[in-house]
Amino acid sequence: MDRMWACVVFVVSIGVLGAGIEAAGIASAYSDPVSRMRAQDESMYVNCALSMTADGDWLTPHFLNRPFFLKPPLLYWLSALSVKVFGPRLLAVRLPALLFGAMGCSIVFLWAAKTKNRTAGIFACILLLSNALWHTYSRLCYTDAIASGACMAAMYCLVSDSTLRTWGARLGFGAATAVAIMTKHVAGVLPLVALIGYCLVAGKEKRPPWRGVGVVLATAGLFVLPWHIFQLVVHPKWFWADYIQIQLLQAGMNPSPQFNSEPAIVFYLRRMLLTDPILLALAVAALPGLLRALRDRKSPTLLILASWIFVVSLALLSFKSKNLPYIALMIPALTVAAALCAPRLIAGRMGIATAVLLALMGVKAIAGNYPWSLRFGSAPALPAAAPMSWYCRQHRANDLLLIEPDDEFSSATLPLAHVRYVVFDPSGDVKRSAPHLAFLGITVTGNEFLELDRWLPVFRPRLREWGNPSTRAVATVITVRSEQDEVRLVEVHPHTDFYLPSKLLPLMPVGAMSAHTVVTLSGERCFLLAKPQDRRDVARLPAPCSW
Questions:
Q1: Same domain, 231 and 153
Q2: What is the DSSP letter of 258?
Q3: Residue 60 in this model has a pLDDT that exceeds 80
Q4: How far is CA 508 from the centre of its chain?
Q5: pLDDT bucket at 260, cuts 50 / 70 / 90
Q6: Angle at 42 between CA 40 and CA 46, to 5 degrees
Q7: Could you tell me if residue 543 is inside a domain?
Q8: Which of 366, 393, 409 lies at the terminal end of a domain, its last residue?
């Protein structure tokens, strides 16, 4: 009976989470509503998915024409398949996250209903559906809702059979963990760590046999290892540089201090307080119950829940790179804890508490642009969205240089001929953050770009040695140290289009201005369009000019 209710919850959750899923354009929503940080990663993930549908290379993700291994490929596969079925639209690229977000709601319901009663399951589900962050990450082409839903599925397999004696629980746990790993890199391993933690704290009669744990590991490895081994063989240098050095070692051990000055516990608690103070208060109230479960070791369900929350908390506090979407791994578990270990005042009136949550959810749905509101798309549109859409509809074949870009890489998801990004970087941090990209010429200085014909023979053999024979990714990012460097780029490239701040126009020499047509679509930025237009045939992404 609970499974039938879980199906109902799944369908309802799709409707609730999916309402207005196309209200925000690519990368325009706030992934961190407290810091007002845009969802820039969505541009990269969508570009990878569209590239797969365009070039047919489903094994190796590409971002802006170069291999991209910062994340495993499952999100790109799912989004690309969705685009194949439903066409290139926002719903298609975001559908995988929506389905896993709804699945997370169903699992939360089943976990609480199985342990306590159906009312507790509904309470936990409404608490999750009313969480602003869960709404956001379930409506973006992001890895976080998928990884969180998969992790919850793995842990629920253990809840269903805490000794892992059935093959269904073993294979389900392993397969769900594999989905999490293939979506979220090393964070997907956390269910295995929680499983081992549970084995250590559970009594001898309640812990799974190590043979069952071995089956879980073998199942996960069966799904995870083939792609990793393939990339290690075919692209060993790319894979090591992106997947290990940048994403794991640099992000985990030596992240940029610009976004990581707060202690981790302050960073996450402050954002939890501002985005969902009710869930935070209920989670704090549930903490004594979880600690009692760890001490008494009588309830396998609470032990599993406590193990998962402890492992994720430790990971969040240990990983030096702080990013609010990481907390999506924790949110569903906190809603279950709030339902199972609620204070007596709430536990004895769970139906009334659920009604109150529904009322508060309604308030969140109609509220303005607050960190706790559920109005997806309430953030202002990207300043570059309308101008870039206009430019795309001109179907120009010229290279386009975005000087001091304000588009969060969303131009990479449009069917443009060839986009390059000019970044103001007087300190040289951009090249130092990814030295392999500078070595391969994907990130170049302004002077190197001005002499690109001389540098191409240097970069071409390096790219070929790294398994990438094309030079199309060369000079994707151009770093400059002054406005004079930016002006020089325009002056030396009369056949290139530019999107740049209007403040640079008075600095332009007469020759550069005479070679371009000025198009002003906003007060702060404008286009310089080369005269005449390039008429080459170019390969374009299968994407619309406006998301």
A1: yes
A2: G
A3: yes
A4: 39
A5: low
A6: 135
A7: no
A8: 366
Long-range contacts of 487-494 (CB under 8 A, 24+ apart): 487/512, 488/446, 488/450, 489/401, 489/403, 489/422, 489/446, 489/449, 489/450, 490/516, 490/528, 492/450, 493/399, 493/401, 494/530
Instruction: Classify residue 177: in a domain, yes or no.
Output: yes
- Asked whether residue 534 carries a pLDDT value surpassing 90, the answer given is no
Same domain, 405 and 276: no
Q: Of 366, 401, 428, which closes a domain?
A: 366
* CA-closest candidate to residue 72, choices 183, 229, 208, 192: 183
Does the pLDDT of residue 361 top 70, yes or no? yes
Contacts 24+ apart (CB under 8 A), 294-301: 294/201, 297/201, 297/202, 297/203, 297/206, 299/115, 300/159, 300/162, 300/202, 300/206, 301/111, 301/114, 301/115, 301/159, 301/162, 301/340
Could you tell me if residue 71 is inside a domain? Answer: yes
Number of H helices, E strands in the chain: 25, 11
Domain count along the chain: 2
Residue with tokens 């071995």: 214
pLDDT reported for residue 216: 97
| Whether the predicted pLDDT of 136 surpasses 60 | yes
| Radius of gyration of the chain from its Cα atoms, rounded to whole angstroms | 25
For helices 74-86 and 90-115, what crossing angle results, to 10°? 120
- pLDDT tens for each residue of 68-81: 999 999 999 999 99
Q: What is the pLDDT of residue 253?
A: 67
| Domain co-membership, 395 together with 358 | no
Provide the residue range defining the domain that includes 329. Answer: 2-366
CB 327 within 8 A of CB 272: yes
What does the mean pLDDT of the chain come to? Answer: 94
| 259, pLDDT greater than 60 | no
**Cα–Cα distance between 387 and 401 in angstroms, integer?**
14
Cis amide prior to 494 (ω within 30 degrees): no
Q: How confident is the model at residue 258 (pLDDT cuts 50, 70, 90)?
A: low
Whether residues 317 and 454 share a domain: the answer is no
In terms of domains, do 279 and 415 share one?
A: no
> Residue 531 is encoded by which pair of tokens?
């005269």
Q: Over the stretch 286-317, which tens digit does the pLDDT of each residue have?
A: 999 999 888 888 889 999 999 999 999 999 99
CA 149 to CA 99: how far, in whole Å?
9
Find tokens 């070039």 and name the residue.
55
Tokens 């959810």, residue located: 361
